[in-house]
C-alpha cells in the first residue's frame, strides 16, 4: 500500500496511539498494529483493527481521565 500523502511505501508496525472517547477521557492503546509511512508521519489503521478498537473503546469506563489498554490481536 502507498501513502496517500507522499506516495512512499507503507509498512506494518506497532505503535501506541491515543483515542479520545469523551470530552474528558483519553484511552491509549498500546502495541496497536498500524501501517506507517516510511517517509512522513502519515499512518493508517486497517478496517479490521479499527473495528476491534471500536469494541475496546466501547468497554472503557468514562469515569477515568486516562486509560491505558494493551491491544491484543
Ligand atoms: Zn507519506
Question: Mind sketching the topology for me?
Answer:
Elements lengths: L9 E11 L5 E12 L5 E2 L2 H12 L7 E5 L3
Parallel strand pairs: 2-4
Antiparallel strand pairs: 1-2, 2-3
Q: Percent helix among the residues?
A: 10-25%
Separation, N- and C-terminal Cα atoms: 21 Å
Poorly predicted runs: none
How many helices does DSSP assign? Answer: 1
Number of domains: 1
Radius of gyration: 13 Å
* Level-1 CATH class name: Alpha Beta
Order of helices and strands: EEEHE
- Based on helices, strands and strand pairing, what is the structural class? alpha+beta
- Give me the CATH architecture, please: Roll
Percent strand: 35-45%
Number of strands: 4
Mean pLDDT: 94
What is the CATH topology?
Answer: Ubiquitin-like (UB roll)
Largest sheet: 4 strands, mixed
| Oligomer state of the chains in this structure | single chain
Shape: elongated
Ions, cofactors and other ligands present here are:
zinc ion
Question: How would you explain this protein's 3D organization?
Answer:
The mean pLDDT is 94. It contains one helix and four strands. The protein has one domain (10-70): Roll (Ubiquitin-like (UB roll)). Helix content is 16%, strand content 41%. The chain has one helix at residues 47-58; strands spanning 10-20, 26-37, 43-44, 66-70. It is of the alpha+beta class and 73 residues long. Bound molecules: zinc ion. Zinc ion (ZN) binds at residues 3, 5-6, 8, 37, 39-40, 42.
